[in-house]
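Re: folding output
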Amino acid sequence: MLVGFYTVASGKPSIRFPQALDAALAYGWIDGLRHRVGADVYTVRFTPRKKDSFWSATNTKRALELINERRMKPAGLAAFERRDEERTRRVHAARDNPVLDAATLRALKADKKAYAYFQALPPGMKRLYTFFITSAKRDATRAKRLAIVLERCRAGKRIDPFHPFRRD
């Protein structure tokens, strides 16, 4: 389901994103892609949660608040109770503190110019680059992402965090 929003700057009355998210969480749905439609309008896609859906820290916190406020509906409560807390902890740890495996680190170090650029990156960008590589589920995807990182670092250019596959 697409929900349309006017930006605050538009001055037009509109439901705000936090209100829509609360309603979605209360019924067991999740927010998804956001698309700008115009200068003052954007949409967000909301979908029902899958059984094995990952819960972000923000959505977990908000769901607990909705439960405490007695605003969570049975469908939302069921979705929340189905979440795998251990999996959520693992995903957060992998995202917050990603670590390159030995083979990937060797490949990065083998390219002196790329490695020097990588080492000079601020800690947050290093984490982003590392997570970009390590979050791939398939070896082929991991290799493709490593190649992108090597190429960009060799050229002395950063990866666009919102469009990492985009080339200049």
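--- second protein (sequence, then structure) ---
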Amino acid sequence: ALAKGCIVLHHKGYKYTNDNIEQLLQTRYLSAMVRKSGKRTKGPKPFTAEDKEKFRVLFKSMIALQK
């Protein structure tokens, strides 16, 4: 999707970019390997009002750019 010029937003209020996608995918892969090895991991932090506000602001700014 990024290669096709799509805008991809995370629900925690940040944008996936060509600059950060490799790191995010690497983190995802390493976390999967830890889980697969049987080690216990923590779940995601709760979705907060601050996260909701960050997403709202980012989403509105992305919509404004498309107009």
